[in-house]
Amino acid sequence: MKKGQELYKKAKRIIPGGTMLLSKRPELFLPEIWPSYFSKAKGCKVWTLDSEELIDMSIMGIGTNSLGYGHPEVDEKVQQTIIKGNMSTFNCPEEVELAEELIEMNPWADMVRFARSGGEANAIAVRIARAASGKDGVAICGYHGWHDWYLSVNHNSNNDELSDHLLPGLKPKGVPKNLKNSVFPFQYNNIKELENIIKTQNIGTIKMEVVRNFGPENNFLQEVRQLASKNNIVLIFDECTSGFRETYGGIYKKFNVEPDIIMYGKALGNGYAITSVVGRREIMEYAQETFISSTFWTERIGPSAALKSLEVMKRIKSWEIITSIGNKIKDGWEKISKTHSISISASAIPAVSSFTINCKNSLHYKTFITQEMLKKGILASTNFYACIDHSQKYVDDYLFNLNQIFHIISKCESKQLNINELLDNQICDSGFGRLN
Predict the structure, then answer these.
(1) What is the CATH number of the domain that holds 235?
(2) Whole-structure pTM value
(3) What's the confidence (pLDDT) of residue 136?
(4) DSSP-derived secondary structure letter, 69
């Protein structure tokens, strides 16, 4: 047994769930075989605890590193920050500079609050919006974190209303039952459903991902904006994932619509912990009329990393680079699937894309892809998060190997081979099934 697998066995005994992040659980990739832990990471490569070098053609730190692992300019800035001191009794000046950059990036906005994780940023935004609107009700569309306000949806009458937004069967244990019927999900592109929620519930906030698996239809985002304005509802765009993937800032810029609050995370610090809540002054001022405060939101590394990451992004137009790479991958998926007559459904924006094989054995095939790619020194599943270090050579090698794997899958579909006999261990668990 390799070191990573041994360490994960120990972790499951002393860490509930084995990991801090659901999306990093080995069972979602390759149970009993996934390396689980890294010794170092650079560019789009990671090294296991056994010093095996792997090309990451998977989820790149869950989408945090669009500039690649260990970007030299970002890391140098962080090292300088560490030498000068990360924490003190005073505040760091970088947070003011970063706030100015985010406001310039979003000209409709006036004020910014910072946190260190996406879930925190979502909770902050909802608290501010509820304070500003004076209403508890929130209409949601998409995935917005793990906090009580969000998981309370599964206390509603249908008991599993998050199944289309996150994962089916999530139990809201530990979430106060008196939060029932305070948050209501609506389907993307279904403006009538949102209209009905607003008519029948005390909605003061609409929170949504701008785009995820597919784009808006029939001016959907404009209709949402109009509904929010007409009913004095605070409109929040959650761009913790989509931010900096197709524009310098939010993907909302592509659709000629502006929110009242927007959150950025993941790529903002290129692997360093920093998230932001950016909004209009008349709404953000309500942060002073409720209690929102945390010690480590004042540390210096996050803002320093973000400032340098934004500088690099702007200079090289990283969003164009990763979108181009993502399109090459998606085109490759389409060609390979057609070559082998295997139906797939590809979704999401190019830089954070995924595909599903449309058949009853889809999880078996997903596991097989991961298994066989790992043997070739490639971390891969049915997701691909692009970074600027994904060179043409890596893209070509990935697609070449995927084509060979699809050839075997086609033989399984035609009953020439049995997929169960080709798997080295059990199949992977299903992951997030996000709505949009």
Answers:
(1) 3.40.640.10
(2) 0.95
(3) 97
(4) B
